[in-house]
């Protein structure tokens, strides 16, 4: 598993989008027992924090200590630095395992073996994330050009799985049909710029070229977005849910 997010982990916590309440409500409706949950690749802990409102105990792991240091806290969340593919959790322990915007970094076979080992029979694996931001045609076109033509070659190869809406990842579980969710938020242009600065390809570009390409993008966005203007933005939620029945 790669660690692209230890640097600027405070910005990640501040600017990355959350997940909509409707998504969690749907997820909980599939779970008769809510005792132990594992948020794998927890990042800033936003999913762990939400799960803690309904589960007795939440265990949240990440390979980045810096991310965990900026994660949301609750009495029933236990954070630890562990790789997704090898943990110290007990066998047959979890009712739910969630991976949010992270599974594309994992070794699929090894992670799925760990899922099967640590999950209870009939537990759920929820793989989720979010696609490209949607604001307006003008801004979407500017961001899309930046994404493909300016920093396109700086994305890690694993990014393709998000571009393909997680449809092409291996998923060796009994898959449930799921509805489409969107996360709708109200952002300023400053928030969008902050979000773009958390992209791993932006970090790679900056490291290799000695300057931040978002600085050149900012005036193009500001042509269509006033300083104090609040716009409604939308992220399509990527979602695959599988029932874990037998060890792999």
Based on CA atoms alone, the radius of gyration comes out at: 18 Å
Structural class computed from helices and strand pairing: alpha/beta
| CATH architecture assignment name of the domain at 9-133 and 157-184 and 235-244 | 3-Layer(aba) Sandwich
Low-confidence stretches: 2-7
CATH superfamily of the domain at 9-133 and 157-184 and 235-244: Vaccinia Virus protein VP39
Anisotropy-based shape:
globular
Beta content: 15-25%
Tally of DSSP helical segments: 10
How many DSSP-defined strands?
8
The overall average pLDDT, rounded, is: 93
Percent of residues in helices:
25-40%
Query: Could you give the distance between the termini?
Result: 21 Å
CATH topology descriptor of the domain at 9-133 and 157-184 and 235-244: Rossmann fold
* Main sheet specs: 8 strands, mixed
Q: Which CATH C-level class of the domain at 9-133 and 157-184 and 235-244 is it?
A: Alpha Beta
Listing every helix as H and every strand as E from the N terminus to the C terminus, the arrangement reads: HHEHEHEEHEHHEEHHHE
Write structural notes for this entry.
By secondary structure, the protein is an alpha/beta fold. The chain has a domain at about 10-135 and about 155-185 and about 235-245: 3-Layer(aba) Sandwich (Rossmann fold), CATH 3.40.50. The chain is built from 10 helices and 8 strands. The protein has helices spanning about 10-15, 20-30, 45-50, 65-70, 110-120, 135-150, 160-165, 190-195, 200-210, 215-220; strands at about 35-40, 55-60, 75-80, 95-100, 120-130, 175, 180-185, 230-245. Strands 1, 2, 3, 4, 5, 6, 7 and 8 form an 8-stranded mixed beta sheet that branches. α3 links the parallel β1 and β2 (about 55-60). α1 packs across α8 (about 190-195). It is globular and about 55 Å long. The two termini are about 20 Å apart. Residues about 1-5 have low confidence and may be disordered.
């Amino acid at each position: 598993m790669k660690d692209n997010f230890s640097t600027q982990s405070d910005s990640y916590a501040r600017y990355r989008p959350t997940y909509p309440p409707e998504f969690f409500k749907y997820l909980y409706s599939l779970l008769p027992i809510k005792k132990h949950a594992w948020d794998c690749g927890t990042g800033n802990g936003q999913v762990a924090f939400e799960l803690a409102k309904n589960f007795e105990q939440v265990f949240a792991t990440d390979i980045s200590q810096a991310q965990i240091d900026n994660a949301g806290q609750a009495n029933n969340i236990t954070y630890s630095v562990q790789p997704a593919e090898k943990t110290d959790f007990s066998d047959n322990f979890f009712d739910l395992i969630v991976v949010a915007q992270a599974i594309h970094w994992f070794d699929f076979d090894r992670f799925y073996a760990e899922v099967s080992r640590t999950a209870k029979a009939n537990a759920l694996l929820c793989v989720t994330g979010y696609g490209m931001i949607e604001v307006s045609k003008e801004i979407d076109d500017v961001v899309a050009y930046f994404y493909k033509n300016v920093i396109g070659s700086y994305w890690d190869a694993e990014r393709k799985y998000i571009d393909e809406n997680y449809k092409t990842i291996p998923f060796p579980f009994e898959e449930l049909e799921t509805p489409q969710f969107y996360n709708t938020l109200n952002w300023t242009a400053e928030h969008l710029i902050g979000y773009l600065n958390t992209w791993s390809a932006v970090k790679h570009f900056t490291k290799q070229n000695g300057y931040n390409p978002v600085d050149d993008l900012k005036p193009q966005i500001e042509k269509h977005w006033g300083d104090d203007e609040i716009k409604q933005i939308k992220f399509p939620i990527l979602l695959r849910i599988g029932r874990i029945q037998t060890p792999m």
